[in-house]
TrEMBL record:
Domain F-box stretches: 21-59
Designated name of the protein: F-box domain-containing protein
The organism's place on the tree of life at top rank: Eukaryota
Gene3D superfamilies in the record: 1.20.1280.50
CDD domains named among the record's database cross-references: F-box_AtFBL13-like
InterPro entries: F-box-like_dom_sf, F-box_AtFBL13-like, F-box_dom, F-box_SCFL_complex_component
Pfam families per the UniProt record, alphabetical: F-box
Amino acid sequence: MFNRRSRRLMERTMASGKDRISALPDDLLLHVMSFLLSRDAVRTCMLARRWSTLWKSVPALHIEDDLATDSNKFMDELLRLRDPAPLNVCDICDVCKASDTEDPENVCEVASNLIAPWLRYALLHEVRVLRVSAPAFPTDLVPISSHLKRIELCLMKFDDPLDLSSCQVLDVLEMTYCNIYESIFCQSLRHLNMKHGCFDNEIRFRISAPNLVSLKLA
């Protein structure tokens, strides 16, 4: 009976030509759009007039591009046009992939320069969850945030200490397939997860996190 009623309702809705999705409140639509890649979120502006500027207030950035695309140009325009609303999530994934013929040091430098302005934007807009999968973290960028609660880093190389002392409410740091040659500092950190990490046997690795309650190594 339920399926029959549902089918009738769907048929009536389709026959009436009503756009029920666009009738949903902004907060709900923005929540749904926050799971889309940023490129796809912007593309929703073509759906209808109701959607023309909605993408500007999506509380998430999801970037999945390498240097073969025009991701930097797209991101420059996106950040320029976006409303100054706080970010819940900034997810930078698979940026600047290295091939077997590329110089790894050059790839690290290019990746670092590429993502640095995106990270600065995210921190300035009170991002709470930061996920980055890239060859290197910008060496000249010191994360300062009173909102950042979770950081997930993947495939990164750290030649310098990772100082997160200025992230006053950071609760979770997760590092996967990272090369770590220096120390980690964070006063507020409570949970540290390190998976498939690579350490320098000749250098003593130090974790300075006085409030740490759990450490997972895999």
